[in-house]
Amino acid sequence: MLPALLDGFRVILLVTLLASIVALVLGLIVAIVNRSAPRYITAPLFGIMEFIRNTPLLVQLFFVWFGLAPLLGDTTPLTVGVIVLGVHYATYTAEVYRAGIDGIPVGQWEAITALSLPRRYAWQHVILPQAVRRVIPALGNYIISMFKEVPILTAIGLGEMIAQVESYQNQHYSGFVEGYTIAGLIFLAASYPTAVLMRKLEKRLVN
């Protein structure tokens, strides 16, 4: 069973990597838009983000897989899983970025205005470097949470670790408990050291 589980683990890592990129980039875009765009844009955007954040991930997954994916043609569980996970967690990373941006001292915003710095230059060289540094640990924690959420994609047929356990059990009528135990240990071995690293990084950045 172990080779199949390791194949499933590689799928989990791939989904986590791709969905993390979507969540981090989209969340940053949303945070900047909410800070700088006019209200007729930020108001509906806020409503959309609140709706996504406050509805279950599984419901969103089924809605996209059974409702939207057939309209788009040839889509795969991997593609749908990456998009749904990435967009769902972008609603959380956007709030993390917002907190980091709001934490920038007022004096720096006033200095940007006084110096008449171009908006793009100010965001790229003054605001974002400081804001992102403050929120790296929080972003890391959301990536760990996303990593542990990937098995939910079994519901749409993605062949990650839990799906491999079920496939093995259906073929051999055994290994159910052992498979879940090994999968849990693999998750623990991957996520716990990362969580410890995030805590050390947070202490270092705060101090």
Helical content (DSSP H or I, runs of 4+): over 70%
Total helices: the number is 8
| Rounded mean pLDDT score | 86
Give the termini distance in whole angstroms.
45 Å
| Main sheet record | none
Low-confidence stretches: none
The total beta strand count reads 0
Q: Characterize the overall form.
A: globular
Q: In percent terms, what proportion of residues is strand?
A: under 5%
* Computed Rg: 20 Å
**N-to-C SSE series?**
HHHHHHHH
Strand-pairing-aware structural class: mainly alpha
Layout: helices, strands, pairs:
Blueprint: H1 2-36, H2 39-53, H3 57-72, H4 77-102, H5 106-114, H6 119-149, H7 161-172, H8 176-206
How would you describe this protein?
With 207 residues, this protein is an all-alpha fold. It contains 8 helices and no strands. The chain has helices at 2-36, 39-53, 57-72, 77-102, 106-114, 119-149, 161-172, 176-206. 23% of the residues are buried. The mean pLDDT is 86.
In a few lines, what is going on in this structure?
The chain has 8 helices and no strands. By secondary structure, the chain is mostly helical.
Pick out its properties.
single chain, mainly alpha, 85% helix, globular
